[in-house]
Design goal:
This protein has twelve helices and ten strands. The protein has helices at about 5-15, 60-75, 125-140, 160-175, 185-190, 200-205, 245-255, 275-290, 295-300, 300-320, 335-350, 350-365, and strands spanning about 25-30, 35-40, 45-50, 100, 105-110, 115, 210-215, 220-225, 230-235, 240-245. Helix 4 packs parallel to helix 10 (about 300-320), helix 8 runs parallel beside helix 12 (about 350-365) and helix 10 runs antiparallel to helix 11. The protein has two domains: about 5-115, Phosphorylase Kinase, domain 1 (2-Layer Sandwich), CATH 3.30.200.20; about 125-365, Aminoglycoside 3'-phosphotransferase, Chain: A, domain 2, CATH 3.90.1200.10. The longest helix is centred in the last third of the chain and has 21 residues, at about 300-320. The structure holds 2-acetamido-2-deoxy-1-O-phosphono-alpha-D-glucopyranose and magnesium ion. Magnesium ion binds near residues 216 and 236.
Amino acid sequence: MENLTEVAIREAAAAFWKGMGRLQIHPLSGGHINRTWLVEEESGEKFVLQQINTEIFQNPETLMENIAGITEFLQKKQPNNTRQKVLTLLSGKTGGYLFRNGQGAYFRAYQYIDHAVCRERVERPEQLYESGRAFGRFQRMLAEYPVEELTETLPNFHHTPKRYQDFCQAVDEDCCGRAAEAAAEIAFIQKRSERFGSARRLLEAGELPLRVTHNDTKLSNVMLDTETGEAVCVIDLDTVMPGLLIFDYGEAIRFGANLAAEDEPDSTKAGLSLELAEQYTKGFLEECGNILWPAERKLLAEGAWLMTMENGMRFLADYLQGDVYYQIKRERHNLDRAKSQLALAADMERKWKEFDAMIKSCMEKEKGVTTHR
Ligand code: GN1
Ligand code: MG
């Protein structure tokens, strides 16, 4: 995405704000795709402005229809006597939830959520428990949402075998001459290719249901109360699409239960924290209630491994292609991200028995998790 001028950002902010006061605008970090700002009026009122990356989300109108459908549905279900919030879109002055400027850039805005923050890393294990509860609740509340009403905003988003094909193509093309440097990582991925279809095959066989899923369940996509640490709101609804529950579980483990950051430059620090994974698992299962199918119960660990490998492939493919998809902040950023993921996947393989046993024991403790179907 090209950089915007300050005038362009101001114009976009004004398109969502009916107040008359002067607006102060501060960039908000986080997220590898869109750009986000906090907008504050002199009166102290705030909202969040985002530019949608239309190189990636090529149909922002459909994307916003998905988000509007989901948020309106959740708002109706959300009791209003709790601290929990549902993301609320602001309408633009020109109608609808989108503003398109003269250069064709697309923006949207959300109500600001007070006294809550997003964390890139776990500081206290309970934060992961809280995020597990938030995504479990999200899953349960959306279990009744008609999947067929949602458009796939990004085709084949968590289709691991297709991701592998794209990865192999990036390796073959090696357009930036970077493949030699990543030979060990490439070999690590290729050696495991047969396993990438494990969940897909069960979906096709009807053993895993297609559900409404979030698809980007990182800890940093849940707002936590600044004082109590309680999960307040699930954010980043761009990839809410038909998908697999085990991937929503897995994506959260990949990000939150890694002993190192997603982009840790020293990949020897990466690995699975069983303690953190347990926190998430407990929270998630407590709130999912009884919606899980038998194959979903069995495949939670597999979902975590697949999501870790998939993100590793995606980061590495982007590195090989010259960093065209994810925003990077330093040289080899995507390579570091890929290495951290692959080291985590290797550690999951080493700890597989304990990992799976921990999930089973959480299920046994969770009386509410009965099998469906
Ligand atoms: C991207 O933009 P962000 O950080 O919410 C990506 C996810 C990846 C994630 C890795 C649309 O999410 O799939 O798992 O980076 N989103 C898209 O941190 O590709
Ligand atoms: Mg996202």
